[in-house]
Design a protein that fits this description.
Elements (H helix, E strand, L loop, with lengths): L13 H18 L2 H11 L12 E10 L3 E8 L4 E7 L4 E9 L4 E11 L2 H17 L32 H21 L9 H6 L4 H12 L17
């Protein structure tokens, strides 16, 4: 009998892989800043839709230098939690569209929407930028430095009783709550966590680390903060 053949997996070509890593790094860098998270939840998320509108941008979120003569621009799309990263460079151009789940701080899907120029140059530029961002951060994500003489603090990420990581179910609840709070703030300017969810928050503290501070701060945005989203400053 002939041996059964295993189905072939679709592997990303090196250029696509490098661009996906670049896009995820840019999104992580942007939303690692609490001010940027607050700005998106309070100002941009209420304007988004779930109707799959395509590559319709509604806000410029961030811009970074890229190579000697270029830049990277991160834009919010009309679809909720969808973004596009575009290059502006005299030698090449690319655009990547991605779905980034805020509650989980993770890129879920991505696609290269445009690609022009020498692929080797694009790969080199993308990898160099990602390397520079990581090397420039003394404490990479999810790494808490050990400080001699200071014991683990209960309830703090990396502490003695560090809560479990958020699950997909947690992310779904938090994502829905974020959208509801943002919509309610846009309508009334008020903020209130539904009483029915309070016991859930108390029994699921791991859900608070990525989003609760941003949600609370978003509720306190005043008129003087209206300009916080266009443009926001980049950060590592």
């Amino acid at each position: 009998m002939p041996k059964s053949q295993k189905p072939k997996r679709n592997r990303l070509d090196p250029t696509t892989k490098a661009l996906f890593e670049l896009t995820e790094c840019a999104l992580n860098q942007h939303f690692a800043d609490p001010d940027n998270l607050v700005a998106y939840v309070a100002k941009v998320l209420p304007l988004t839709t779930t109707d799959h509108t395509g590559r319709v941008s509604i806000a410029v979120l961030d811009t970074w230098p890229f190579e000697l003569d270029g830049s990277l621009t991160l834009l919010a799309l009309a679809d909720a939690q969808h973004f596009t990263l575009q290059s502006n460079h005299p030698e090449f151009h690319f655009e990547v569209v991605a779905n980034y789940e805020l509650a989980a701080a993770a890129m879920r899907t991505a696609a290269v929407a445009a690609l022009e120029g020498n692929k080797q140059d694009i790969r080199h530029a993308a990898r160099t930028w990602v390397h520079d961002q990581i090397e420039g951060d003394p404490f990479p994500p999810d790494v808490v430095p050990d400080v001699p003489g200071i014991p683990d603090i209960p309830g703090v990420p990396g502490g003695a009783d560090d809560p479990p990581a958020p699950t997909k179910a947690d992310a779904k609840v938090i994502g829905g709550l974020a959208r509801d709070l943002a919509a309610n703030m846009a309508r009334t300017g008020g903020f209130a966590i539904p009483p029915a969810l309070e016991p859930w928050f108390e029994s699921n503290p791991q859900t608070l680390w990525p989003v609760l501070d941003g949600l609370v701060a978003a509720c306190q945005v005043r008129v003087r903060d209206d300009g916080v989203i266009l443009p926001t400053t980049g950060c590592c």
